[in-house]
Amino acid sequence: MEKTVYVRPTFTKLPSDKKERILDVAIDEFSRCGYDKASINRMVGRLGIAKGSIFQYFGSKKNLYFHIFEHAVALVKRSLKGVKAGSEGEDFFIRLAMSLQAGIYFIRRYPRIYQIYLKMLFQEDFPFRADLLKTIRLFSIDYLRPIIEEAVTAGQLREDLDPELAAFFLDAVLDRFLQAYCVAYMDSGLGLYQADEKVIEERIQDCIEMVRLGMATGDSPPGESAAKSMEHRA
Amino acid sequence: MEKTVYVRPTFTKLPSDKKERILDVAIDEFSRCGYDKASINRMVGRLGIAKGSIFQYFGSKKNLYFHIFEHAVALVKRSLKGVKAGSEGEDFFIRLAMSLQAGIYFIRRYPRIYQIYLKMLFQEDFPFRADLLKTIRLFSIDYLRPIIEEAVTAGQLREDLDPELAAFFLDAVLDRFLQAYCVAYMDSGLGLYQADEKVIEERIQDCIEMVRLGMATGDSPPGESAAKSMEHRA
DNA sequence: CCTTATGATGACCACCTGGTCATTTTATTG
DNA sequence: CAATAAAATGACCAGGTGGTCATCATAAGG
User: Fold this and answer.
1) Per residue in A34-43, pLDDT tens?
2) What's the pLDDT tens digit per position in A67-81?
3) CA dihedral A46, A49, A53, A59 (to 10 degrees)
4) Distance, first Cα to last Cα, chain B
């Protein structure tokens, strides 16, 4: 997926402001409608250029989409690299919170990129969806796992923790957090949808705390609860 | 959404085997292609009936979809009711495991239903998606929350646990588990995709255990770790 | 200034979509 | 059996799609 070029020289030679305008409109269309319902006619209508030009630039709708996707992946990678470097040496749960916060920042800056990702997630019939997903899902494998393993050796996480399971688990929670932030009705009434900075920050802390400590009462394994008489509050 | 009828008497009067065949093909088409790409032409082709008949039965593509969706929601509700009743009185984490296991069973029995749900999840432009999602997302609100609250009063969960947060959290993990089971590349290398009963059962236990105990070492709150010298193994 | 190469254009193509409806077939009733 | 009601049919419609390409405009080079 890396080496392939989805763009023709005719497009490359274009003045960069025109290139940006074209990509901007295309990203907007794809993020709003998803791949299938996105319309080239509508794009060229908004751009005020001829339909043929788009095909001269990209060859096909698919190539246009892939070019944008590649661009998006590059942005994500850069963002992740930034957080990883910027949180080096910190406590694991701090790093986690920073990663989640960075996800929110990313979505705030590039709202339409995440939409494009979500819209293709479950369209299996999608051409090359497997490749695209593999590329994007490096998150949990390339990003989270090393951090987890470091934290285990640093004694911040249980010694017997299964890194793969932990990566899956965190990926689930973090991804859903982002989904809840930018898609309605995914927040189980937590009020995450398009929430402002303050709320997000609090909820991130709450979530991370839950990841840290789990849900069970402090003392009791599976069996009967011995915490009945513990009536301390606050 | 409950009272509305998406089906015309002409369809109701049909012999039930024909009705089932039609719904079966329609469910298949929708689950494979999603709403937009699903083709009425293809359905009637496979069914060997006239296109007009479908519109005589349902009036529109949307109605056909809604009828199926309603059917699906009923199935889910029934399944949930079953687990809830069948796990009454059990320990919270047992109930959790049973719920997740029931989700897997459900997907095994009705693989295409879950696909239909996934395919509409992030298509915001979808007509009435809000209503459909509200109906389906009752899971975390109507199903999980009462169970959580019971468990808090029973002393199985932290006293200071925020039920809304817990519901969100569990919904995230459980839903992702199901997604990983039936969609490729969502399992972060855990091997959940179309895994067999044995693997699933183990992984459910692992996940629930992680929900129970969290990830941190047993003793240390945020600050420095005091577990460095604890070199017990296994 | 003319020639040649390159880019922009939009009419046009085949194809497919959801939906309609006059017509025919089948079932019901007197 | 005839008359009527109900259901099945598929040709047909308008509208949209991604994609093509002959034609025209512009730029480059001699």
Assistant:
1) 999 999 999 9
2) 999 999 999 999 999
3) 0
4) 54
Q: How far apart are CA B202 and CA B213, in angstroms?
A: 17
Q: Above 50 in pLDDT, residue A220?
A: no
Give the length of chain B.
Answer: 234
Give the DSSP H/E element, type plus range, for residue A178.
helix A163-182
Residue B157 DSSP SS3:
strand
Is nucleic acid strand D under 7 Å from B13's C-beta? yes
> Protein B61 CA to nucleic acid D11 C1', in Å?
20
Rg over CA atoms, chain A: 22
Q: CATH number of the domain at B68-212, please?
A: 1.10.357.10
pLDDT in tens, A171-193: 999 999 999 999 999 999 999 99
Which chain A residue's Cα is nearest to B162?
A206
Write out pLDDT tens, residues B212-225. Answer: 999 999 764 543 33
pLDDT tens, A14-64? 999 999 999 999 999 999 999 999 999 999 999 999 999 999 999 999 999
Contacts of A119 in chain B (CB under 8 A): 122-123
What is the fold, at CATH topology level, of the domain defined by A70-213? Tetracycline Repressor; domain 2 (1.10.357)
Question: Using CB atoms, which residue from A155, A188, A230 is nearest to B217?
Answer: A155
Cβ-nearest to A185 among B137, B215, B217: B137
D6 C1' – B144 CA distance, angstroms? 49
Sign of CA dihedral A192, A196, A197, A199: negative
| Average pLDDT for runs of 10 along chain B of length 234 | 79 97 98 96 98 98 96 94 95 98 98 95 79 82 94 96 96 97 93 97 98 85 37 31
Single-letter residue type at B25 = V
What pLDDT, on a 0 to 100 scale, did the predictor assign at position A3?
53
Rounded to 5 degrees, φ, ψ at A157 are: -120, 155
Q: Which of residues 11-40 of B touch strand C (CB under 7 A)?
A: 38-40
